[in-house]
Design brief:
The structure is a homodimer of 457-residue chains. Chain A is of the alpha/beta class and 457 residues long. The first copy, chain A, is built from 13 helices and 20 strands. Chain A folds into 2 domains: 282 residues, Aminopeptidase; 121 residues, 2-Layer Sandwich (Alpha-Beta Plaits). In chain A, a hairpin with a 6-residue loop joins strand 1 and strand 2. In chain A, helix 1 packs across helix 3 and helix 1 crosses helix 13. The two termini of chain A are 20 Å apart. At the A-B interface, strand 10, strand 11, helix 5, helix 6 and helix 9 of A face strand 10, strand 11, helix 5, helix 6 and helix 9 of B. Strand 12 of chain A pairs antiparallel with strand 12 of chain B.
Chain lengths: 457, 457
């Protein structure tokens, strides 16, 4: 696998051109009107999987956005790696904060700036180009399958159904994913845990129109005030979530693992300076690393209602809405969380208003077994190219389908991600350092190598 | 004054045409870009005051939007009535809920539909046309002055300053205002009290950009959640406002007046059906009428932050904002309320975020003396044209400058308004029944008559 560096050097301009072609397709899954964009992105990937050396690839219709499946089977006695990624991206808003257009990639200071530059078009492309190298130089040590979806950012509902119906097609020994971050390029790390997600939108409805707040204020329950009460009532002043039953299934992490976790060098001062806050804040009794990795959380992702423009309009609004999501940890179950969330809101039932709840998406948490062959192979591959063993981290983000792969297909995932915190995924000016991109392409073939080697032991 | 009915009948088409010309100018004061519209509306009124019979009228520049001043002085021994009104209107949003264009008046089912149809262009025009009648038929029993402003909906800051500097110009015996509502055309009422207003916008700022809620959720204080806590913390579960010191200056209304107030026939069932809520809700220990008239209130007028579009974006927002206003009662003072509001927010100071407060507008509450000549003249004029004595009500809305007229100029105001609750002022599909419009024009000359008569006693 040592020739990979030379291969990258020779082909890197083309790699970027190919990636940019994908980035230029604004495949925002959250917007139902984006049918053309979603199918274009899927077709683009299908073509690239073929040109990278797969035997076949196809765009498969699902109950939602299409998935792309591809494979190169060389020997049924060899192990099979299923590469997972997603071609959908987060919405680019707020538009005005982007320094360059979100869907026109631009390289500034050795970084690619664009929506999807990291999450997950950039990271997925490292997988494709590492695969291309192994095929081109005849070094592929195993069978490879690709499953690439368009709903990662909205809960992977279609892919979960696809897994239930296509167990044979997707059968593999391990799943390989590049969609997570490292602490830094100098301090490589490996994500062994992901939090789950339960995401809801609630709408509080009061009067049938905006009322004059002078004529009605004081006698009509105000949907914005009610919504604030509801949100505020979901946490206490120690940062604990107060929805009854919320912590019931939370698996307490033992002292030993908590100590190990807290050994990860988290430079809190640099981090708070980077994101511009005076201090961290969260659930009492836990460190920042613990709050981010092993504890569930509840955040309002958006809120709106009434008069939002310039000036002073004296209305009592007809409606108020909020998007509220919870990050989950083992063994919380999104369906159970949905039930207790709805039951909680029903129990409060404030007077004079009605509440509507929409479940937007969910996925359970996931923890990878540290001692397993696949995690050990990932550690070796990172050590090979970064020169250091990676630190284990329990990541904060969710990849909704990872837990489903485990539950439905019985296949464990390796989260071999090369993103950085500063990549600003989901934010304006998302970016991906060229160095990360090339380092990822360099590391992935080594994972194939070590994993296949260990498989035969 | 008995010829007024015939005069209305003969001229009503022209009256409507003239009013529609004013309504077509979208003079929304909240938007600073509306300079041209605001000056056009002021000029339009100046011309109409002249053509209605005034000796002079002028558009006067102020520190904000211009005021229109006009007068007809016939005899210094006669009383002087100062007519007040405003040419500015509330923003028309949400646009999509209007059945016809907000600034293109349309008559449907004997009602004028347009922004400003009632508040206050329609009601102000009744004053102008009643004045026109008295001049045209040589029946004016007193001197008349007009002061019409363009900032009523945003707090009347410029007019308050104008009053301080132009006491002589505005000197009068009574102020006459048509900018309030009646219970119904069958149950005439007279507003003798107005609540005041203190209006703020607060912005909670956390990180310097929207963060990925999976990567940071649980360890970074979320501005939307903090804002919900702040709002929720301003009221207890009995509907009492909990900002320290908020009720300190509230003048408790005595048992006798509370009993009188509660005699007003408020058909709560019809009202909640009209506005589409299952029940009224407010401060414990008070009736709906009391909550609307003699008790202060606190309402969120608008709230926004984070992701407000379709779908599920998993961010921890950088900012969250809310417009929060309080209706005040005697003897609460807007400046003191501003101080305790700011002190309260400073005292909470949630960790990890900063809070910015903008004061948008304010005005003190006002109560007219029931036994005074002017109120008695208003009662007589309503009785004359409606056939019934009006019921006294303490209104919920604010007219910011009314308290200032009393405090600065020492002139009491008569709130001779002809709006209805169903006029939907400040809401989409604002309207004004033609019957209200004509009834107002008919009643106003009688006020002039009775007031001037009592003045000489």
């Amino acid at each position: 696998m040592d020739s990979i560096r030379g291969y990258i050097e020779k082909n890197k301009e083309r790699f970027l051109e190919e990636l940019f072609g994908l980035i230029r397709i604004p495949s925002v899954s959250a917007d139902k009107r984006n049918r053309e964009e979603m199918y274009s992105a899927a077709e683009y990937l299908k073509e690239n999987i073929i040109s990278s050396g797969a035997d076949k690839a196809e765009v498969v219709k699902t109950s939602g956005w299409p998935v792309v499946f591809g494979e190169k089977l060389i020997d049924s006695k060899l192990p099979t790696i299923l590469v997972y990624g997603h071609y959908d991206v987060q919405p680019p808003d707020p538009h005005e904060e982007w320094k360059s257009l979100p869907f026109e990639p631009e390289i500034r200071e050795e970084k690619i700036y664009a929506r999807g530059a990291d999450d997950d078009k950039g990271q997925l492309f490292m997988q494709l180009k590492a695969f291309e190298y192994m095929v081109a130089e005849n070094k592929l040590p195993c069978n490879v399958k690709f499953i690439i979806e368009g709903e990662e950012e909205i809960g992977s509902a279609a892919l979960k159904k696809f897994c239930l119906r296509n167990g044979q097609l997707l059968s593999a020994d391990v799943i390989l994913v590049s969609d997570t971050t490292m602490l830094s390029l100098d301090t490589p790390s490996l994500t062994i845990g992901l939090r789950g997600l339960a995401y809801f939108e609630i709408t509080v409805t009061g009067p049938n129109r905006d009322l004059h707040s002078g004529l009605y204020g004081g006698a009509v329950n105000n949907p914005c005030n009610v919504l604030a009460d509801i949100i505020s009532g979901m946490k206490d002043d120690k940062g604990k979530i107060t929805i009854p039953g919320f912590y019931d299934s939370v698996k307490e992490v033992d002292k030993g693992e908590r100590e190990l976790l807290n050994k990860v060098p988290l430079d809190e001062d640099t981090l708070i300076t980077n994101i511009g806050i005076p201090e961290f804040y969260g659930e009492e009794g836990y460190t920042t690393i613990e709050r981010l990795g092993i504890r569930p959380s509840l955040d309002v992702n958006g809120i709106w209602g009434g008069f939002m423009e310039e000036g002073a309009k004296t209305i009592l609004p007809a409606n108020a809405s909020a998007k509220i999501s919870m990050r989950l940890v083992p063994d919380q179950d999104t369906e159970k969380i949905e039930k207790i969330f709805k039951a909680h809101l029903e129990n409060i039932s404030p007077p004079g208003v009605s509440i509507r709840i929409k479940t937007l998406h969910g996925g359970n948490a996931y923890v990878a077994p540290w001692e397993s062959k696949e995690i050990q192979a990932a550690i070796s591959s990172i050590e090979k190219t970064f020169g250091k063993k990676p630190l284990p981290i329990r990541g904060g983000g969710s990849i909704p389908v990872i837990a489903a792969f485990d539950e439905v297909l019985g296949i464990k995932a390796v989260l071999l991600g090369f993103g950085l915190e500063t990549d600003a995924i989901h934010s304006p000016n998302e970016n991906f350092p060229l160095q990360s991109f090339y380092k990822g392409i360099e590391t992935i073939p080594w994972f194939y190598h070590f994993y296949s080697e260990s498989y035969n032991l």
